[in-house]
Amino acid sequence: MKIIVCLWFVLGALSAAGKVIFTTVGQRATLECGAVSFKNSLEWRQGDDRIVFVDKKGFPRHGKAAVQTRSKRRGDTDLDIFPVRKEDAGTFTCTADGNPQVHTLLVGSVSVSPPAELKVGSNATLLCEIEGLNPDSVKTVQWIGVDKNVRSRTAQLENVALTDAGTWKCQFSHGGETFSTQLEIKVTEPATKTTPAPKQSSKVNGKKINSTICAQPSCADSGVAHWWMWVAIGAGCLVVVLLMVSVIVLYKRIRRRKRNLHLMKNGRQAQRPRQYCQCNHQTAAAKPQQGRQKGRPSALPLQPLLKE
């Protein structure tokens, strides 16, 4: 009888044991309930606070858990959280039809200080924070670099070299499983400072002239290049001026030639005598009068006045 009771407790403990989910800040975390479906009720809790409760009719009732506003059900029983925050780390309990399963959510974040690109010879600090770990698991946090291994959640990099650049991995163990997250480190060489060249004094015609000595090999080449550049610019300007003068002279010559041709043409027309066209043809005969002309009626004879 005792053996049967012990087996029952062992099976109950195994069924209640959930999964360990690891994610980083700002990412998405999906918690699997362990039950594919439910008949009567489903409940998700964050610690002791209810997230959501669904009855057999499928109507959800939301609780007051901090993660409630950033979570929603995925499928029938799973829970989806986005975006994940540090305070979300902890235990989550899914109870389907009275069968609870406890899951653990671990939330990690990695950073480097200073956050910008590291310079060769500078100092930096790598920090790995894992929320939700038990004290025994915290001891397993370590940084693994290209050729370094720091068994601590904080790694101090002194006198940074180019070999420190690359992918650093924060690794830890929890519940017999190993988890890790990565951090990309960039290292750049500091900009070289150019020292001013010393000045050399010389005398020309009794006057003291200070000239700068070029210490770099390319300095003389750059001076020659500048001289040739000014020569090329001057030659180009001269060519442009000559082309403009040639165009102006050619234009004036063409106009003068057109004007002379016009004057010659007008002079020839003035010397040529005018010729009129004479037509040698018979004049048209006078048109005969048709019909008879009516003469004016003669005046009537005056009659003598009657006398009494």
From TrEMBL:
Name of the protein in its database record: Uncharacterized protein LOC108880658
Membrane-crossing segments per the record: 227-251
Chain positions covered by the region annotation Disordered: 272-308
Keyword set includes Membrane: yes
Keyword Aminoacyl-tRNA synthetase carried by entry: no
Signal peptide, first to last residue: 1-18
Gene3D superfamilies cross-referenced by the UniProt entry: Immunoglobulins, transmembrane domain of human cd4
Protein keywords: Immunoglobulin domain, Membrane, Signal, Transmembrane, Transmembrane helix
Domain Ig-like: 26-96, 100-186
Gene designation: LOC108880658
Pfam families: ig
